[in-house]
Amino acid sequence: MENQALQYYNEWINFVELGRYSEAVASYDKALAINPDFVDAWFNRGVALYQLDQYAEAGVSFDRAIALKSNDNETRNNLKIALQQFDTNS
């Protein structure tokens, strides 16, 4: 089961390289349905959502990653940026 989550997670490489962020998010969602504690999937889902200008949802993903790995400064910085963009565009 964990291998299947990793397979979905790895699909993002192709989607992100092609700028197909919606499909990357769908791959992360599949991986997270199998393993909801997959920190890297939450982080990268946030990045993809940010690229789609879905700042609030990106913030939710970054927040979930922080809940699972609280000492990750990169994720905290991304959460801050996503929330600033959300505030600016709301």
Question: What does the model show?
Answer:
The protein has five helices and no strands. It is an all-alpha fold and 90 residues long. The protein starts with a helix and ends with a helix. The model has no long low-confidence stretch (mean pLDDT 88).
Task: Give the gist of this structure.
This protein has 90 residues and is mostly helical. The chain contains 5 helices and no strands.
Q: How are the SSEs ordered, and which strands pair?
A:
Blueprint: H1 2-17, H2 21-34, H3 39-51, H4 55-68, H5 73-89
Helix pairs in contact: 1-2, 2-3, 3-4, 3-5, 4-5
Name the descriptors.
single chain; 90 residues; mainly alpha; Serine Threonine Protein Phosphatase 5, Tetratricopeptide repeat; 5 helices; 0% strand
CATH topology: Serine Threonine Protein Phosphatase 5, Tetratricopeptide repeat
CATH superfamily: Tetratricopeptide repeat domain
Number of helices: 5
Largest pleated sheet: none
Termini separation: 40 Å
CATH architecture label name: Alpha Horseshoe
Class by alpha and beta content? mainly alpha
Gyration radius from CA atoms, angstroms? 12 Å
State the total count of DSSP E strands.
Answer: 0
* Overall pLDDT confidence: 88
How many structural domains are formed by the residues? 1
Assess the beta-strand content as a share of residues: under 5%
In sequence order, what are the helices and strands, one letter per element?
Answer: HHHHH
CATH class: Mainly Alpha
Uncertain ranges: none
From the spread of the alpha carbons, the general shape counts as globular
Summarize the amount of helix as a percent range: over 70%
